[in-house]
Amino acid sequence: MKRTIRTCCVALTLGLLWLSGCTSEKDPAPVNCEESDLQVGIDQVQNVSDCLAEDGGVTASAQGGQGDFEYSVNGVDFQASGEFTGLSAGNYVLTVRDAGECEVTSSFTVAVDGSLLAINSITATTAGCESDGGEIVVDASGEGELSYQLDNGTFQASNTFSGLTAGTYRVVVKDGAGCQIFAEKTILNGISYEQQVKEIITTNCAVDGCHNGDLGASLNWTVFSNVKEHADGIKRLTGNGSMPPSTSNQSLTQEQKDLIACWVEDGALNN
């Protein structure tokens, strides 16, 4: 029986450890970003000169953390400088990343000089795993009749968008004068680790002789921080059927695989 259990564990740690059975070999200790002192501040914001101009900008600076910093205003394209130009009116999230791959964010708004148009807040309802139950409601203010756009859709009078799957959406608000401002909002799947995912993982591999601490503290999958660190690998291996392997006489349902994937996509939250 232990041979079967260990085979499951091996499959679930492929790509994380070079092993052919449960051993005491470990990966290098990962950086614990929860203990990082990395910080970022917004030093200056330059508003755009008119409704459709792209002459806005921001300057930010970081401190703490490890090594050199990289900055991004879209979460994808990072650069060494904390200065960004050529921005349109909108609500932005600036991200700074250090050499240890830890990240922190700070929000800022590039407004239109002389305009009252503003997105005050956006609320989002979770979508559910593999579901389209998400909803976005926009609270905005400005002159004249306001209209609302989601991604590249048409503008509408309603400030509510329903029937949405998990993901990040771009919301644009336009006022009566034609001025526009945007913001982004993420809808989560809303999967709970404690109530939905934890039992799946612990039942399949946090067992005697394997990921219950017998191989060392960093491989103890009864500890949430260890599970979070390996979350991407767990998603990949459960999704492609490598865990549990066919030789283990164990299997996951498609629903269980989906729950793990949705939880990881939400950011592997401790919820």
TrEMBL record:
The keyword Signal applies. Keywords: Signal. Residues 1-25 form the signal peptide. It comes from the Bacteria. This is SprB repeat-containing protein. It comes from Fulvivirga kasyanovii.
